[in-house]
Amino acid sequence: MAEEQLQDRTEQATPKRLEDARKKGDVPRSRELTMTGVMLAGSSALLFMAAPMASKIVGGFSDALVIERANIFDTGYMAVALGNYAGIAMTGLVPLAIVLLIAALGSSMLIGGWAFSMSAVAFKGERMNPIKGFKRIFSANSLNELLKAMAKFGLIALIAVLWLWWSADELLTLGRQPVRVAIRQALEICGVSLLVVSCGLVFIALADVPFQLWNYQKKIRMTRQQVRDEFKETEGRPEVKSRIRMLQNQIAQRRMMAEVPGADVVITNPTHFAVALKYDEASMGAPRVIAKGKGLIAKRIRDIAAEHDVPLFSAPPLARALFRSTKLGQEIPAGLYTAVAQVLAYIFQINNSVRAGQVQPEPPTPLVDETQF
What we know:
Layout: H1 2-6, H2 15-23, H3 31-48, H4 50-64, H5 77-108, H6 130-137, H7 140-166, H8 168-172, H9 179-219, H10 224-235, H11 238-259, E1 265-268, E2 273-278, E3 288-294, H12 296-307, E4 312-314, H13 316-325, H14 337-356
Parallel strand pairs: 1-4
Antiparallel strand pairs: 1-2, 2-3
Helix pairs in contact: 3-5, 3-9, 4-5, 4-9, 7-9
């Protein structure tokens, strides 16, 4: 493990690593982008809802500052009234809260997408390690966050001071306005001020998003050993795959050998190749290869054929052509129809002559152009 950590992470993250990181909730995020989105959405909503919010505030103040004579001596009235007016105030803030929630979720998913994982919020004992805590505090990432905070504070403070200086006259006139008008204008001024400050945050977000994407890609890089290990896990270890292929080949060979006793003829090389053919005029358009092999497999096909009295026909060019041009279970190609027909006709003549006690015919010499196969 220590040796792996010493290796440089020079390889780009594989799709599987990216998917595993997403399942753990590890995706690129920009807090500056989220804050900018929330500020822009909140200031816009505040400007849009300034009039109804002002009316609700004025109505709440009017009701709260009036106490009926019958309720003056009721010791429980103030608590009930406070609860009612607090509920009214909260109800008035619900639309704004919904806008802020949607803005926070939407802006946070702009660069990382939706990713929810319980492992991201699960308790981890390593977080309680003070040594690792100090490393996080004095890390390059913490320094970057400090520099961003200072730059953000300086930029926002500069924009806020300039805007307050620009709006000083409008702010001073609020004291001479009727209460309803003053509250509405105050809300509008707050909304515009937040919108102006939010526009300043846009520049910080534009600088932070590319950095966060670059930093995430750097953090999630892999070593060459990790790439090799992942490939083994996904594709299977070579020794396991080799064992599976061997077992599959053995099963296929046993199944193939079981078909040899039903063959009409086995065409041989005579020692290197063996191809077993079967032809059923009712169900086949052409003779079909039911078994084939070379070397030891060819010998096994010949032995089984001999045990079950399946005719063996030596035709080296034809055997090679059949072996190379036809897959197991397929019908022979059209270019070999004539040669195979001569062999099958000869085999049928032998069977008929044996039953009739006649002299066996001379074996044919099938002509095959091996260059076509």
